[in-house]
Amino acid sequence: MNKLLFADSAGPSFQKIYGTSHFALAALVPASLVSPPEGAIAKVADVGLAAALTVHNHIALNYVISDYVPRGIQVPVRAGVLGLSVLTAVGLTKLALGGPGIGGAVKELWKAKA
Q1: Phi/psi class of residue 36: alpha, beta or left (left: φ > 0; alpha: ψ in -120 to 50)?
Q2: Residue 18 assigned as binding residue
Q3: Nearest alpha carbon to residue 62 among 17, 108, 112
Q4: Which CATH number fits the domain that encloses residue 55?
Q5: Residue 68 labelled as part of a binding site
Q6: 15 is in which domain, residue-wise?
Q7: How confident is the model at residue 75, as a pLDDT?
Q8: Which of 14, 42, 44, 47 could be a cystine partner for 10, CB 3.0 to 4.6 Å?
Q9: What per-residue confidence (pLDDT) applies to 49?
């Protein structure tokens, strides 16, 4: 649990996960947007995107906390970020599996603006 709260300084394994998430996002975002929403590729891309976005954002927000939040309140802020990360994972996974998918939702937003 301590590694999740201090994800920015949790060691080389978390650094490797964070670095890998960049490449995962670079591959999964276009795959999710280009593939047909009903296809297996879209589902796999959307589930991977839900995981990669959550992990990437959680670790990145912990870096922001280390740099900009006063030390005295960092632990409660980190707990809030962990809760937000859990909610993000649940919401994106639900969207990926039970809704139009992450790519499908983005496409619907683009259609609404056009």
Answers
A1: beta
A2: no
A3: 17
A4: 1.20.1300.10
A5: yes
A6: 2-113
A7: 96
A8: 14
A9: 97
Domain count, the chain: 1
CA angle 83/26/37 to nearest 5° reads: 80
pTM: 0.89
50-56-61 Cα angle (round to 5): 125
The DSSP secondary structure of the chain, one letter per residue, reads: -HHHHTGGGS-HHHHHHHHHHHHHHHHHHHHHHHS-TTSHHHHHHHHHHHHHHHHHHHHHHHHHHHHHS-GGGHHHHHHHHHHHHHHHHHHHHHHHHHSS-HHHHHHHHHHHH-
Each residue's pLDDT tens digit, 28-82:
999 999 998 888 999 999 999 999 999 999 999 999 999 999 999 999 999 999 9
